[in-house]
Amino acid sequence: METELPTIFSAKRTSFVRTSVIREILKLTVENSNILSFAGGLPNPDLFPKDVFSSVMESVVRENISTAFQYGDSSGYEALRTQIAEKLTDVSWVSSRSITITHGSQQGLDILGKIFMDSDTNVLLEDPVYLGALQAFSPYHPNFFSVPMEPDGPNLYWLEEILSQNKIHVFYANPSYQNPSTYTWSLEKRIKIANLLDTKEIILIEDEAYRYLDFEGKVYPSVSSFRKRNDLTFVLGSFSKILSPGFRLGWVVVPDLYRNLFTAVKQGNDLNSNQFSQVVVSKLLKTMDFDVHLHSIQSFYKGQKESLVSLLGKYLPEVKFSLPEGGMFLWVEYPKGTSKELMEHCLKNGVAMVPGTEFSPASRSSSFFRMNFSFLTKDVMEIGVKRIADVYRDINT
Amino acid sequence: METELPTIFSAKRTSFVRTSVIREILKLTVENSNILSFAGGLPNPDLFPKDVFSSVMESVVRENISTAFQYGDSSGYEALRTQIAEKLTDVSWVSSRSITITHGSQQGLDILGKIFMDSDTNVLLEDPVYLGALQAFSPYHPNFFSVPMEPDGPNLYWLEEILSQNKIHVFYANPSYQNPSTYTWSLEKRIKIANLLDTKEIILIEDEAYRYLDFEGKVYPSVSSFRKRNDLTFVLGSFSKILSPGFRLGWVVVPDLYRNLFTAVKQGNDLNSNQFSQVVVSKLLKTMDFDVHLHSIQSFYKGQKESLVSLLGKYLPEVKFSLPEGGMFLWVEYPKGTSKELMEHCLKNGVAMVPGTEFSPASRSSSFFRMNFSFLTKDVMEIGVKRIADVYRDINT
C-alpha cells in the first residue's frame, strides 16, 4: 500500500515526507467503483446548497468581476476576513486583520510548520493524530512527542509528565470531534490545558476544522479563547466541512506578533488564496441562512452516525468504539487480528476503511480503524458492514 | 517601504523569508486610489471572457456538482491535466500523468524549492530574476548564483564560467518575456543552453508563465523541449495571464522520476488544488475559442506597449529600454539618481513603479524600474508618465 519514494537527487527534508494511504485508497475507490468506502472524509454532496451556489456565482460574475477574477491581498479578501472574524471565531482579540485566508486549513498547517519547525523544535501531537498534520510538519523535521488521548481529551497525567520533562515549543491539537478519533475535549480539560500552556509558554496550533459538526448543534469554546497568552495561540478553521471542499478555503487566526511573517510566508507559498472562491464564499455567507444550513448538516450526520452504530451493533457486536458527540467518523477497535491483514482482506472483498496506524505519530501498529459515515447511504453502509463482518469472521476463525 | 519582521520565536529559515515591495505597493494603491500604478502585474480585466464565464459556471453547478465541490486528486483534475498535456506543453514525453495542477505557478516554485533546496544546494538564477522565485526559494536557504542577462538570454560567457567553476544543481529560468525584464531567449540560446544543462546534469526549473504573451502570436519552443535529460527538467505554466488570476491555477510538468515525491509534497502543502476552479477552467477551455481569445490578449497588450513606449519617448526621452517581443512590462533604465529616491518621490507624487533592486538576486541597487503597461488606459498612462517626468526632472536639476 505504501508509495515508495525513489532515491533521487533531492533536499534532505524529502526523506521525511509522508505519503497518505487515505489518498491512495481514495484513488482505488475512484478507479474501482465496486469498492464501498468508509475511508474518505468526504462531506455528503447532497448537503451542498446547490440553488444558492448557482445564484451567487451568477451574481459574482455580474457584479464582482474585477475583484473576483484578479490577484488579491495575500492575507485574503477583506469582506470574507471580516465575516470570519465576526461569525466564525471566538477569541476575544480577533479582528479581520488577525485572519489570513488559506487554501484549506491544511495550508495553514504547512505555513505554521515552515514558521516554527526546525530540527530543534519540540512538537507535541495528540495520539492518534490528524494525518494531514503529520504530512505538513514532517518535512520540516521537528522532534515529535505525543500524548495519549481519552474520549474527553488528552490524558492529563501524561500531558503534565511530558511538559515537565521536556521543553515543548508547539502543541498541535484538534480538540473538537478530532479526525480520526472524534474525541472532543471537555470544557474542564480545555480550561486546564489553556492554563498549563500559558504557564509553560507553549505555542498552541488549534485545529478547529470540525468545530461546527456537533450532532446537537453545540459549539465548544476554543482552547485558545481561555488563553491569556494571545501571542502564542493560532486557530485554524475551514469551509470544507460546512460549505464545500471544492472552494479549498480555510483560515488561520494569527496573533499580531506573527502577522507579517505569516503573510510573507503565504506570499512565497502561492501569492494569495483563490480570489474567485473567496468572493463566492463571502456572498454565500451573506445570502444563505447559515444557521439553518448548519443545522441540516448536523442532523443529517447525526442520522448517518446512528445508522452506522446500529449496523455495527447488528453485524459486528465484538468491535468497540465510544459514541462521538459530532464529526464524520467512528474510531473503531477490531480486537482480533492485525489491522494490516484486515485492511488487505477488506479491499479484496470490496470495502475500504483506514487503518489506525496511519494516525499514529510513531507509526505503531494499531487495532483501530477510522470509519467514515458521512458519505454512504444507509443501505450501502449495510452492504459494506456485512462485507467487513465476513472478512473479520474469516480471519478470526 | 520594507516590512520589518520582528524577532520572535521561529524556525531558523524564517530569517531568510523575503517580503515583497510589489505587494506593499499594491496595497498602497488599493488604499489610495490617487496613485496611478505601473507597479502591478495585473492582467487587464476587460480581457476576461465574462460571457463564457457566466455560462460555464452555471453549467458546472448544474452538471458537475459532485466533482466540482468535492475534494479531488492531489495531482489535479484529470480532464484538465489532459487538456494541458495536449494543448499547453511542448515537451515530447508529456502525458496527463506528468502534469500536477498547482495553486498558481508560484506554488510550483515553492514545491520545487522544498524538494530540491537545502543549504548545500547551488541554485543559479537569472539577474534580474522573478521576485516570486526569490520569495519561494529563500526560506529553503540554498546558495544562490546568478548569471547576467541580455535581451536575447543569459550571457553565455558568464554562464559557462559559472558552470565550469561551480557544481550548479538547479537553474531557475524564465526564458519567455521574463518578469521583470521581458527579455526572451533566442532559439539559438535555448538549444545551446539545453545542451549545456544536459552535459552538466543540471536540473532546469523553466518558468513559462508568460509563454503565450508574444505580441505577434509567436510561441517559442521551451528550453526543456531541447533537453535529452527528460528526468532533469520541470516546466511551469499558469492560467493567470491567459484566463484569469482569480482561478489561482497553474501547473508543473514533472518528470516520471519525481512524480510521487512531487504529489506527496503537494498533499502536505494543501491536499489538492481548488477543484471547483479546475472544473470551470477545464470547461472554459472546451467551450471557448482559445486561439481567438489569446489573439485578443496579444494584440491588446501590443497596443498598450506601443502607447507606453511612445509616451516615454515624448516625456522621458532620456530613459532607456529594449523593445520587448511580448509580456506585460517595460524594463526601463533611469540613468540619473538612485532608484530608491526616485521611487519615494514618485509615490509622493501619486505614481508607482517597482524599483529594480527588488529583482536583484543580491539586492544590489539598480537604476532600472519595472513598468507595467497591461492595466492602465492610455490616457491614465499619459498622466502617470508626466508625473514620473516631473519627479525625475526635479531630482535631476
UniProtKB/TrEMBL annotation, chains A, B:
SUPFAM superfamilies the UniProt entry points to: PLP-dependent transferases
Molecular function per GO: pyridoxal phosphate binding; transaminase activity
Entries under InterPro entries matching the protein: Aminotransferase_I/II_large, Class-I_PLP-dep_aminotransf, PyrdxlP-dep_Trfase, PyrdxlP-dep_Trfase_major, PyrdxlP-dep_Trfase_small
Domain of life: Bacteria
Gene Ontology terms describing biological process: alpha-amino acid metabolic process
Signal peptide: none
Cofactor(s) essential for the protein: pyridoxal 5'-phosphate
Domain named Aminotransferase class I/classII large: residues: 52-388
CDD domains named among the record's database cross-references: AAT_like
Protein name, per record: PLP-dependent aminotransferase family protein
